[in-house]
Write a structure and sequence with these properties.
Chain lengths: ~280, ~850
């Protein structure tokens, strides 16, 4: 059981929890994730570690409420207990002095990349952070991230409607502005990961995507999170979650993510009917 | 009524319209689109969204089309560059508070691939997360206005979501404040649960003191969900329809006498996605209630598969085909003397099934054909008619209500027991008719009443007699109707004060009620079965009759169960008897006078005969213990007919018959090679239809015009009872309201979690004064001890209950509860369960 120290809504449908987990806080590294079980009958779901504090013994996660488990998580209040948190899991993000790095975060990925930004900075990199959101309302933690980046850019979909610019214009524009850009790291929804990979493919710019396939145990046993990268099968939980975006078999990846979609929808519908006394 | 017609011009077309129509209605009727978000057909106009502003020649300002009535010679222009520019600006302002990215996102087509990978967001903020995507009225308007951008920053209100209630959730951050939910809730459904709160930028939709819908007394009719143009009010527990292969099936809700036409959306695998009122004849928000739309959905979801026929062999049970089960049934039944066999049926079945069942009974020469009818409402009326040679209407024609100026509703919670009927009454109330409610128990329509007469339980007839006395005293003109002099003479001997006191009412209230009735004629007098579920039911009917005669009012007895009003028609075809009290019946089983029984539906026997056949929609506990179980077509299967409170024979869609062979009543008999030697002669459904439609109108409303004797004595719980001794503190008069929350023997509150919280049959409603006095609070477990046994329940505080009385609404699942129900009111002693 892990006590929740803080539970807040950062933006519409985006939630932030701080949980007591001393061992995880002591050993977490940027890019890693934890498996969370919300309650006794809950399933295990992977969440990126967005921040941790060794002294306080706490870890922080930011997630979106899109199914039963995240619905349960979003309903928790400070002082409540999570059934369990296991981690840190996954390979940490590769750290070295690469020169100039572009980080692209969307949705939960803005928070998920926060430790990676700090890690890269500590390694002497020059970090450009591109936060993608629907509008200013959906952006969070920008103050936190701004402090540790060299350049912080936002891309709001709302602005795109009037300017006509899209993600590819911005990324390719940045590429031109900064020819010494060594790599791009992306975290966010599958569509963002895919789109960025496609945009950078022609430029040859190394693009690392943090994949988020369906994951059950998170330790390489079940194989639910298998992904094909450069023709080779990998388990996202132990070999990733960071992979070369240009090598990912996206078609397979999208179709595997849909595997239990009907069951997920049904579970959510049942959950709503049966547990109508959810905490607000 | 012929309305004057006017001619006007819209966009240079000359159009003829009826006077009283709005410009928007007229334009729509003529295929001219004017965007609008707050207007909805059937709802009072609001002119809140301002999108329907049009140019009317001669007016200095633009006018909202939804609130401008057509006039002779009017010249209207619905679209000019200025108007469209204005609409775009208004719409952008609306969108500044509603996530609008789904309306103009250029990636929408690209991420189609992804759409099937997200369940549903708690707070939708884009198309793939929003359950209303594709069906959102904002999308339609955006398309019309060709909105490509919004010049205002989107502002999230960040208000907490409503998730605590059963069936309905609300996201205030998606709300565009069109006010449809507020209007439908107050004006159409008379709930007045929802309202605008706060002002300016902080305006939201909420309940009184921001309570949950449950606490605010919502009846969960779901109308707010039906009218919401966005996903702000949303039905809980349904799967988004996006990209799904859906089939629709219309059916009639069999849960109460209204027989609302509902529509089920069914997924490919047979899962019922949602049930909502069908909107063919009237706007969907005008019919349906929590029982049909939420209760049935969850109940039927749990029983997706039709149960298989079963035969019991000793201790084991074998699943067999329908033909085998019927064959076995016929063989066994033949072993018994027809005198020893009974056929019993309940009401929630398609008429076709009922007729086939009765025909089978007749084929066996069974004399004991019983309709299990614990309420006996129409039987009692029939008896009364015979004894007094008078006649009441059976079929209700709501069209008549538009002419009624005042309604006197006695002991009937129309909102709960006959909702469609109530909506029609309410429609007349909105046009200025007045409502008087006389009720001793809990009644949800009271809040709308001009005068509330909260009499003592069992003293309804005294209250009505008091009203009659006031009327007679005021109007001294003679009447030549037989019996009048006798009544006048008798009433002259009692004072109004005495009658008022005996009925527990205030004389002034009675006088006010009389005033309303005199000044607002014609009057309709409405009562339902609770009025007759009392020992003094005859006195009640006499008093109602006399009052109606004096007022020249129409009397409407409202039967609240489906098919209820065909009982006497069935009796003209078959020797059907009414079975209400099970004690005598069970005694016969014990004495082996009854040895075999065929039951269609669920009857709470405590003793079972030697051989028992049950045909039911669900395999309930009794079905699972029967010697033979036969499945029956449920409301969603087949296309059978039901008869509603209006006496209309109605049927769902005729298009689809599911599992035809296993579900129609007894198809095996019709097979040519059947070895059963039975030839069922089932009357054609049309013949019954003709019987139903033929009758009523020929019968005059009044039969023989005569005043009946009046009762001015207090009978039940008479004052003499209590004279000299004060009732003990925990003594209550308990009133039993009707519970219609069952289907095919399944109790909704047991199978649908939301129902348990919303309408629990265990609740004991008490006035907060009483609970404070007894040191009880909501949900405390209590017992009511009566002469016949103990009822256990949970406290539910409600100011609608008179102090000293308690209201219960049990499901008739045992002979004990059946006994209590038939008493209607009884004296009980309340104790906290831990005492």
């Amino acid at each position: 059981m892990n006590r929740i120290r803080l539970s807040a809504r950062l933006a519409p449908n985006t939630f932030w929890v701080e949980v007591e987990a001393h061992e995880i806080a002591a050993s977490a590294r940027p890019g890693q994730f934890v498996m969370v079980i919300p309650d006794k009958k809950g399933e295990r779901i992977p969440l990126n570690i967005a921040h941790w504090d060794k002294n306080k013994g706490t870890i922080e996660m930011v997630f979106m409420s899109l199914g039963v488990s995240t619905r349960k998580l979003a309903a928790f209040k400070a002082g409540d207990f999570l059934e369990g948190v296991a981690g840190p899991l996954g390979r940490p993000a590769e750290m070295a002095n690469f020169g100039q790095v572009l980080l692209i975060g969307g949705c939960y990925g803005v928070a998920g990349l926060y430790p990676v930004v700090r890690g890269l900075k500590e390694n002497g990199n020059q970090v450009i952070f591109l936060a993608e959101a629907r509008s200013r309302t959906y952006l969070y933690w920008d103050d936190r991230i701004r402090k540790v980046t060299d350049k912080f850019i936002t891309m709001f979909r709302a602005d795109c409607f009037s300017s006509g610019k899209d993600l590819s214009d911005i990324i390719l524009g940045l590429r031109q502005e900064s020819p010494q850009l060594a790599r791009v790291i992306v975290m966010g929804c599958s569509y963002l990961l895919f789109t960025v990979s496609e945009i950078t493919r022609s430029t040859g710019l190394k693009t690392l995507v943090n994949l988020n396939p369906i994951m059950v145990d998170g330790t390489g046993m079940c194989g639910a999170c298998r992904v094909t990268v450069h023709g080779k099968t990998h388990f996202a939980c132990v070999d990733g979650p960071e992979f070369d975006g240009h090598g990912v078999d996206w078609k397979e990846y999208f179709s595997r993510r849909k595997a239990f979609f009907n069951q997920e929808e049904l579970a959510l519908a049942n959950f709503e009917s049966k547990a109508s006394d959810l905490k607000e | 009524m012929n309305r004057t017609r006017v001619r006007l011009q819209i966009n240079q077309h000359t159009i003829e319209a009826e006077e009283g129509m709005t410009v928007l209605e007229c334009a729509r009727k003529n295929g001219i689109f004017i965007p609008s978000l707050c207007e909805l057909e059937g709802l009072p106009a609001f002119a809140g969204c301002r999108l329907c502003l049009v140019e009317i020649k001669g007016r200095p300002f633009w006018s909202p089309a939804c609130q401008s009535l057509v006039e002779e010679g009017m010249v209207v222009t619905t679209s000019t560059e200025d108007l469209e520019q204005l609409r775009r600006s208004i719409f952008e302002l609306i969108l500044s508070e509603h996530p609008y990215f789904c309306l103009m996102c250029s990636e929408k087509a690209n991420c189609e691939e992804l759409k099937a990978a997200m369940a549903r967001a708690l707070e939708p903020g884009g198309c793939i997360f929003c359950p209303k995507d594709g069906n959102c009225e904002l999308q339609r308007v955006a398309e019309y206005l060709k909105i490509g951008k919004v010049d205002y920053e989107f502002e999230d209100k960040g208000l907490p979501l409503w998730q605590k209630d059963p069936f309905i959730s609300h996201n205030p951050n998606l709300c565009i404040l069109c006010g449809r939910c507020v209007r439908v809730c107050a004006e159409i459904r008379t709930e007045s649960v929802l309202s605008f709160v706060h002002r300016g930028l902080k305006t939201t939709i909420s309940t009184f003191f921001d309570r949950t819908l449950l606490e605010a007394g919502c009846s969960f009719c779901g109308a707010c969900v039906d009218v919401c143009p966005t996903a702000s009010f949303f039905e809980k527990g349904i799967i988004p329809s996006r990209g799904k292969n859906l089939s629709q099936r219309k059916f009639i809700c069999p849960l109460c006498g209204c027989g609302c036409e509902l529509e089920a959306e069914i997924l490919k695998d047979g899962t019922i996605r949602r049930i909502h009122p069908a909107s063919d004849t009237k706007p969907s928000f005008m019919s349906g209630c929590a029982r049909g739309r939420f209760g049935l959905r969850e109940l039927l979801a749990d029983f997706k598969e039709t149960p298989n026929p079963e035969i019991k062999h000793g201790e084991t049970r074998e699943e067999v085909s329908q033909a085998e089960a019927i064959e076995s049934m016929v063989r066994t039944l033949r072993k018994y003397d027809p005198e020893e066999v009974v056929f019993v049926f309940t009401e929630q079945h398609h008429i076709e099934n009922l007729l086939a069942f009765l025909a089978l009974g007749q084929d066996f020469r069974v004399k004991n054909l019983y309709w299990f009818y614990p309420g006996e409402f129409l039987r009692k009326i029939g008896q009364f008619e015979e004894e007094n040679r008078v006649r009441f209407k059976r079929k209700i024609n709501p069209a008549f209500f538009s002419e009624v100026r005042s309604f006197l509703v006695i002991d009937s919670d129309l909102k709960c027991e006959a909702l469609t009927f109530w909506m029609e009454v309410n429609r007349a109330l909105r046009k200025g008719a007045r409502l008087i409610v006389l009720d001793s128990g809990l009644n949800r329509i009271e809040q709308t009443a001009a005068v509330r007469l909260k009499c003592r339980p069992g003293r309804e007839y005294l209250s009505l007699t008091a009203l009659l006395k006031i009327l007679i005293d005021r109007d001294t003109s003679l009447s030549f109707i037989p019996g009048f002099d006798f009544i006048v003479e008798k009433l002259n001997r009692v004072s109004c004060d005495h009658l008022a006191q005996a009925s527990g009412l205030d004389v002034d209230d009675l006088k006010r009620a009389a005033e309303v009735l005199i000044e607002n004629q014609p009057v309709a007098l409405i009562f339902a079965e609770r009025f007759l579920r009392q020992d003094v039911w005859k006195s009640n009917l006499q008093a109602a009759w006399n009052l109606a005669l004096k007022l020249e009012a129409e009397i409407f007895p409202v039967s609240s169960r489906i098919n209820e009003i065909i009982i006497d028609r069935l009796q003209s075809l078959y020797p059907v008897q009414v079975l209400s009290d099970l004690t005598g019946f069970e005694q016969k089983i014990r004495e082996k006078k009854i040895r075999a029984a065929c039951v269609l539906g669920e009857v709470p026997f405590s003793v079972r005969p030697e051989f028992l056949v049950i045909q039911n929609i669900f395999k309930t506990k009794s079905g699972a213990e029967a010697d033979i179980f036969l499945p029956e077509a449920g409301c969603l299967q087949g296309s059978g007919h039901l008869v509603n409170v209006e006496g209309r024979m109605i049927s769902g869609s005729q298009q689809e018959r599911v599992k035809e062979d296993s579900n129609s009543a007894f198809p095996v008999f019709h097979e040519p090679d059947s070895k059963l030697r039975i030839k069922l002669e089932v009357p054609a459904i049309d013949s019954l239809g003709k019987l139903i439609s033929a009758d009523d109108d020929k019968a005059s409303n009044f039969g023989r015009l005569q005043y009946l004797p009046v009762d001015e004595e207090s009978k039940q719980f008479s004052d003499a009872d209590q004279a000299g001794k004060k009732p003990s503190a925990n003594e209550f008069i308990v009133i039993i309201n009707q519970n219609l929350d069952t289907y095919g023997g399944m109790i909704l509150s047991e199978k649908v979690p939301g129902f348990k919280r919303f309408q629990n049959p265990d609740w004991v409603w008490l006035n907060p004064e009483d609970t404070a006095r007894l040191g009880l609070k909501n949900n405390d477990k209590v017992q009511i001890e009566s002469e016949s046994g103990r009822f256990s329940g949970k406290v539910r505080e409600d100011y609608g209950v008179t102090p000293g009385t308690a209201v219960i609404k049990p499901v008739l699942s045992s002979t004990f509860l059946l006994g209590l129900y038939q008493k209607g009111i009884f004296k009980g002693w309340l104790r906290a369960e831990n005492e």
